[in-house]
Request: fold
Amino acid sequence: MAGISLPGFAPLSVIDAVIRQTNAHTEATSTEELVIEAREHVVSKGDSIFGIAQDYKISPETILWANDQLDDNPDMISLGVKLTIPPTTGIYYKWQEGDTLQSVADRYHAKVDDIVAWPGNKIDLSDPKIETGTYIMIPDGWREFVQWVVPTIPRGPAGVLKTTLGPGACDTNEGGYGGSGWFVWPADNHFISGNDYWSGHLAIDIAAGEGANIYAADSGVVVFAGWSYGGYGNMVMIDHANGYQTVYAHLSRIVATCGQSVASGQRIGFSGNTGNSFGAHLHFEVRYLGGWISPWTVLP
Ligand SMILES: [Zn+2]
Reply:
């Protein structure tokens, strides 16, 4: 059997490719029907990217990557919006002029063989030309997120820029309380209502109705209090002076003020639906040494 040459990568035996394609299909159908085509999901009340992804048995990142209108921000969904749900975890890619299987595979950290073997791609091995504008599934492909996040603001004399972060940025926030390193829940409910912590959502969304009390998760000093850009809405950031910072977003009202020392469990504001938010809840982030960590690792 002579090898054939696909654009951009080494000759591949037709028989070899066909066998792998058959195997891939057999593996999946042994448990349940293999989904090979993208589907459409209309966002309804109570939906989150995380929950939708679980329903369709794909990663939540896959949905963000396939829906440009979300700007890599899972909070950007709204009622009635139509989402593209790729058939499997990875990148659902619209073929561009000049693409080759190798260049696309490289860009998304994937393997040419996996793209060729995905049955939904219907790549004709005798004439492996992909029309510009065709959607191709890149199984297990991935890319970086470009989501805007509020940078971690350390306690210190240097004011942060209200022009880039929002009018809630504090001018100065020196001294004051430090944290104990022991956290309390920042809301009366101790469960999530929407997005859990994952790479596209570096927070947990805690169930908290409009106007519910929001508390400092540990003692510290308020380094941001007010409106923030980038979808966080009314936001409080507390520096705990022990490497930890916590963020409380989408608040309806803030009672803490810039530079204030707050005690663990002290009320700092009320839950709401400001910024990019799909129903009232508390978007709660925990940062450690400037990076994001899962709030589940510190909450009791
Ligand atoms: Zn959130």
